[in-house]
């Protein structure tokens, strides 16, 4: 059945992949974005298709559309970008959630929130299960994002309890892949671009901090399965690839996959940078029969070829 589907943040890294999958399934997709970190080029393959539309709009303001489903992804995700205008980041999460929940309530439709592993903060439980309440700074530089996303989740649960809105909350762990922005600032794109240019790889801290990296296609599959769950949901689901990797390992892997001559240089660890992070995905597995399929090496190879293409188009020849 063809649905009209709203994707906020549709011109961003995850959003553009999600829009492509939904359009390919024959749905009518509307990508809403204010282009804070997203780009129209991300949507090149879709622009002009009869079942795809874009709308420049900031989700902190009300929006009235008639749709059948909402994926609420609007929010900068990279620390560099969400800390650039922290007040706007909190507004995007909180007011954006209120407006999109208001729309879901008015229309009686399901809505999915792109929440984050950051709501666990610098966790003292490992791996992180959904019941863990987190260890989050209320005042540090990451708080605008972490607390904004926590408040957005609270709004989702209250709209469910008070108004019966059909909610889905995905706690997304670090995701990477083609169409990350060159200037995104997150570790995978930074290291790949540095490696391809034979520039120093900037390893923050001692490089022993860990993350678990999910390839974007796997994440999008998880998001769509979560949206399509038929039983009522009133709590969050972790989505991520539970292979814990240190940043030093990621640097070495990217240097070896690119054949780069880049040296590794150590830079100070940003304040409140979580030391360890890895999802427990048992709930996603039981509920969605979902597990990530793309191994890190394969996903990195695909991301590296993407960035090789981007750099060569910019006449920034890959220096080997
Ligand atoms: P991204 O920065 O590439 O995309 C976010 C998009 O939202 C951009 O297109 C941006 O322009 C848009 N946007 C920002 N503020 C907006 C506003 N006020 N109104 C309308 N549009 C706005 O980030 P991403 O990696 O694609 O992340 C997508 C979502 O997934 C975000 O909500 C993020 O918090 C969440 N998430 C991502 C990851 C990850 O590793 N990629 C991890 C956890 C959670
Ligand atoms: N809203 C929106 N689009 C809609 C419906 C509501 O942007 O289709 C906004 C509305 O402007 C309000 C917010 O969502 O600011 C919350 O709506 P709700 O109905 O929950 O709250 P109320 O209007 O009663 O304050
Ligand atoms: N990081 C790094 N070098 C970089 C960018 C990031 O060592 O050039 C580290 C960062 O300190 C963190 C990890 O990589 O420990 C993941 O950072 P990212 O910004 O990608 O995601 P997040 O911290 O939000 O999980």
Radius of gyration: 19 Å
User: Can you tell me the residue ranges where pLDDT is under 50 for at least 5 consecutive residues?
Assistant: none
**Mean pLDDT score:** 97
Helix content: 25-40%
In short:
It contains nine helices and 13 strands. The protein has helices spanning 13-24, 79-82, 86-107, 143-163, 187-196, 216-227, 247-258, 282-288, 296-313; strands at residues 4-8, 28-33, 52-56, 69-72, 111-116, 167-172, 175-176, 201-204, 210-212, 214-215, 236-239, 244-246, 264-267. The protein has 320 residues and is an alpha/beta fold.
Describe the structure.
The protein is an alpha/beta fold and 320 residues long. The strands form four sheets. The chain has a seven-stranded parallel β-sheet, sandwiched between helices. A two-stranded parallel sheet has the order 7-10. The longest helix is centred in the N-terminal third of the chain and has 22 residues. The protein is globular. Bound molecules: nicotinamide-adenine-dinucleotide (NAD) and uridine-5'-diphosphate (UDP) (2 copies). Nicotinamide-adenine-dinucleotide (NAD) binds next to helix 1, helix 3 and strand 5. Its EC number is 4.1.1.35. Keywords: Decarboxylase, Lyase, NAD. GO terms for molecular function: UDP-glucuronate decarboxylase activity.
């Amino acid at each position: 059945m063809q649905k009209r589907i709203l994707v906020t943040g549709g011109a961003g890294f995850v959003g553009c992949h999600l829009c492509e999958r939904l359009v390919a399934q024959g749905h009518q997709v509307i990508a809403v974005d204010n282009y804070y970190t997203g780009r129209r080029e991300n949507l090149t393959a879709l622009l002009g298709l009869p079942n795809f539309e874009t709308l420049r709009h900031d989700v902190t303001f009300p929006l009235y559309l008639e749709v059948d489903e909402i994926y609420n992804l609007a929010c900068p995700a990279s620390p560099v970008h969400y800390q650039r205008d922290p007040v706007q980041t909190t507004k995007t999460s909180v007011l954006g959630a209120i407006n999109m929940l208001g729309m879901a309530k008015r229309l009686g439709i399901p809505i999915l929130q792109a929440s984050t592993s950051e709501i666990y903060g610098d966790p003292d439980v490992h791996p992180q299960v959904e019941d863990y309440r987190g260890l989050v700074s209320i005042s540090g530089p990451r708080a605008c994002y972490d607390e904004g996303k926590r408040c957005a989740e609270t709004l989702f649960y209250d709209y469910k309890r008070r108004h019966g809105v059909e909610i889905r909350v995905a706690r997304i762990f670090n995701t990477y892949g083609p169409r990350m922005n060159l200037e995104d600032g997150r570790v995978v794109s930074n290291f790949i671009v540095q490696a391809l240019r034979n520039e120093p790889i900037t390893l923050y801290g001692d490089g022993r901090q860990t993350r678990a990296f999910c390839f974007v296609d796997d994440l999008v599959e998880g998001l769509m399965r979560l949206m399509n769950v038929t039983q009522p949901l009133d709590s969050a689901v972790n989505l991520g690839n539970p292979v814990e990797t240190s940043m030093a390992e990621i640097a070495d892997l990217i240097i070896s996959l690119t054949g780069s001559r880049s040296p590794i240089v150590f830079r100070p660890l940003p304040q409140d940078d979580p030391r360890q992070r890895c999802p427990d995905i048992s709930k996603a597995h039981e509920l969605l029969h979902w597990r990530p399929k793309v191994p890190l090496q394969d996903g990195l190879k695909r991301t590296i070829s993407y960035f090789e293409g981007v750099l060569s188009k910019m006449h920034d020849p890959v220096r080997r």
